[in-house]
Amino acid sequence: MKIAVVGIGVAGAYLMNRLASDHDNHVVGFERMPESQHDAVCAWATCENVMSGLARNCGLNFDDYVLHDGRNMRVDLGNKGHVDIGLRGMVSYDKLQLIQDMIRGTDIRFGRAPRKDELEPDFDIIVDSTGFHRNYLPRVPDELWIPCVQYKVKYPAGKEPFDDFYLRSFPSMSGYFWYFPLGNGYAHVGAGDFLKNHNSFVDEFLKKNECEVIKKVGRPVRLTPPSSCEPFTDGRKSVGVGESIGTVYPLLGEGIIPSTWCAELFVKNLHDMPAYRQAVLEKFKIYSLVFKFIQLKISRKFNIVKHSIDMLKLYQHMKSEEERYGMEVRMADMLKVSQI
């Protein structure tokens, strides 16, 4: 098969590696940024317990990319106090280097974002892994997305504000501020907020804590789950993979592992797109419930009594998947966070 993979982020890089290793396929990647400016835009935190196996699928050792191994994450709830969450595999890692190693030796056309009609004559399948932009698929009506900004910064020795992961949740869970250590005084400092108060919060933090700004990036993150991001195809040759079809865990805004899982589902169902659709909907079924919870919180319609069953289901899911999320999950913490 002739396959075009458009968008070389987490999902696109994984697909290039996995699809190109099958010599029955002719796979070409397209990335709109020039190679010298190619970057891994969003935060670099993930769960080593899961990423180790996904990296191994690509012939890589995930340990080679770990920058900081988390032990504790403080979640600051403002005037509601804070919770300290024990970590079991949550790490920050060199995301860009992992992407570059995944695509090494594959055919990538940098600095190009071809139109769909340019690609259709030459390819059997066009994979839309363009993330939020969803360039090759029909628009999703009434979707929910959150604007985000992130800085890579360098602190003077001994001046780091935190030595581990730190989050500050915004009122009504409309978003959060994050601080992710990257080792050797480097960190990612950023925030996303549905109510668009994130820039001022980050600016204030940067002024308060002396640092050198290395890089600033900004992008929106889609929180609408796969069940509300259909169709996954344009009915012709284009099919979505990763964030373009909603594989971001809405509670955390985390898309690295889900998008890579989605890419693997695509690889396994390459010759059966209806089966791919069903596999995606089944794999990410819980995301619809989580999304409902976030919507209720942002709209201030959440009621701990009225929505207790949904809260219990969410807790049971995360508790049973502690190894996947890389953190200890306690009902007391979840209830405290849900009340901000």
Defining traits:
31% helix; FAD/NAD(P)-binding domain; alpha/beta; five-stranded parallel beta sheet
Written account of the structure:
This protein has a single domain (2-338), classed as FAD/NAD(P)-binding domain, CATH 3.50.50. It is globular. The strands form 3 sheets. A 7-stranded mixed β-sheet has the order 6-5-11-12-13-10-14, with helices on both faces. It is built from 11 helices and 15 strands. It starts with a strand and ends with a helix. It has 340 residues and is of the alpha/beta class. It has helices at 10-20, 48-57, 95-102, 116-119, 198-208, 256-268, 273-283, 286-298, 308-320, 322-325, 331-338; strands at 2-6, 26-31, 45-47, 66-69, 72-76, 82-86, 90-93, 107-110, 125-128, 145-154, 165-169, 175-183, 186-193, 212-222, 238-240.
Topology (SSEs and partners):
Elements: E1 2-6, H1 10-20, E2 26-31, E3 45-47, H2 48-57, E4 66-69, E5 72-76, E6 82-86, E7 90-93, H3 95-102, E8 107-110, H4 116-119, E9 125-128, E10 145-154, E11 165-169, E12 175-183, E13 186-193, H5 198-208, E14 212-222, E15 238-240, H6 256-268, H7 273-283, H8 286-298, H9 308-320, H10 322-325, H11 331-338
Parallel strand pairs: 1-2, 1-9, 2-8, 5-11, 9-15
Antiparallel strand pairs: 3-7, 4-7, 5-6, 10-13, 10-14, 11-12, 12-13
Helix pairs in contact: 1-3, 1-6, 6-7, 8-9
